Amino acid sequence: MRNTHPYVRFRRDLKTRAYALRRNPTTPERRLWYGFLRKHPCKFSRQKPLGSYIADFYCAQKQLVIELDTASHFTETRTEILGFQRIRVIRFANTEVMQQFEAVCARIEEALAEAPSA
């Protein structure tokens, strides 16, 4: 069966950086991945190159990016550029993931339910 998810172009030079980020996740990234996203029925990728950016987590099926915010991620420009590619972005502060894990997971489920399948 052929892949029906839209292909999102990315800068090839980001592949090496994305690989390094996958091998060395932050504590909140590790918690969200191993505690929720890794075995989720909607397949997620970690540190996925999309355009000129590397998304923390990406679900191609639902065209949804999950960002765990640090200063470098929190820009409206980043959200707008991904939005032009019909990719929705939801953000959580690192402290939210660590202190309100169940609420973060519930919000992700809501976003997945709202998102149309690609």
Classified in CATH, the superfamily of the domain at 40-114 is VSR Endonuclease
Strand order of the largest sheet: 1-2-3-4
The CATH topology of the domain at 40-114, please?
Endonuclease, Chain A
Shape: globular
Topology pattern, helix = H, strand = E: HHEEEHEHH
Can you tell me the CATH architecture of the domain at 40-114? 3-Layer(aba) Sandwich
Mean pLDDT: 82
Tally of helical segments: 5
Strand count: 4
- Residue fraction in strands: 15-25%
Helix content: 40-55%
Helix/strand/pairing category: alpha+beta
Which CATH C-level class of the domain at 40-114 is it?
A: Alpha Beta
> How far apart are the termini?
15 Å
Over all CA atoms, what is the radius of gyration? 14 Å
Poorly predicted regions are: none
Biggest sheet: strands, sense, closure?
A: 4 strands, mixed
What does this structure look like?
This protein has 118 residues and is α+β, with helices and mostly antiparallel strands. The chain has a domain at 40-114: VSR Endonuclease (Endonuclease, Chain A), CATH 3.40.960. Helix content is 42%, strand content 21%. It has five helices and four strands, in the order ααβββαβαα. It has helices spanning 14-23, 27-37, 76-84, 94-99, 101-114; strands at 45-50, 53-59, 64-69, 88-93. Strand 2 and strand 3 form a beta hairpin. The model has no long low-confidence stretch (mean pLDDT 82).
